[in-house]
Each structure stands twice: as structure tokens, then as C-alpha cells.
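quick one, 151 residues, struct below
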Amino acid sequence: MAFYTPLVKFFHKEEPMALMTFWILVTGCGWLLLFSGYQLLSVPWGSVPLKIWSGIIYLSIFSTITTFFLSQLCTLSLGPTRVMAYSYLYPPFIVLIEWGFGHPLPSVQVLPGVGLIIAAMFIVQQGVEDIAGPNALNSVDKKKGNTKKHE
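---
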């Protein structure tokens, strides 16, 4: 996973992001079938409840496809370091969403981890600015022929 976002930026050659997302998901499915496809024959598919099928469809469409698409799109515009830093916020967001649905907050033992994730995200963001410098985005745009300045 650590190589995923840098490789997205490296391999992107101006093709539509939806097409790139499609091929990444197809390739991932191929690897999954290669290593565990033989076990699919032993599953009693007829006895799988509709609720489970609904969950599978929801997870495959909304979670997987949407997340991959947004992750790739953001990698091209924000850069891999920032996208990975923002991905660290998934667990705290899940805690907030669960709390919003009326579930209790996790135990006090979990909350320092959430705080640590948020602090690490800000440290990584600050590190990007220190390494790249304030005019880094402007120099990238000049190479592409754009004259717009980022504020």
C-alpha cells in the first residue's frame, strides 16, 4: 500500500481516471482470484442471505470504487504524501460517523490513538511544506506551461 499513491502519479499518462480505476480494480480482482479463487467453489452461494449480498454490493460500489477513484484523483492534484496523510484520518472519521449514528464512543484507551493519528497527519503536512518549499507548486505549474499561482 505504501507504493500505491506514488505509483499512481508515476503511471498516470493522461487517461481518464475512471479508466485507470477500472483497470486497477480488475487487476486486483485477478490477483485475488489467483490466490483464493479455488475456494469460491466450496461456498454455498444459494444459501447466502440477501442482506449479505446487499452488503457486498454496497462495499464493492460505494466503498471500493469511490475510494479508489477519489484517492487516484487526489494523488494527481495533491501529491502522494498528502493523500497518504489524509488516509490516516479514516479511523477517526469512522469513530465520528459511528458516534453520529448514536453508537457510543470507543473506550478511553482508543482515544489517544485517534489523537496521535491527527497529530501525525499535521506533522506530515508540515513536513511536505518544509521539504517542498512555498513555491514548489508554482515551479511544477511553470514546467507544465501554466502561469497560475497557488495561494
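The helical segments are 4-11, 17-36, 50-78, 80-87, 90-100, 111-132, 136-144.
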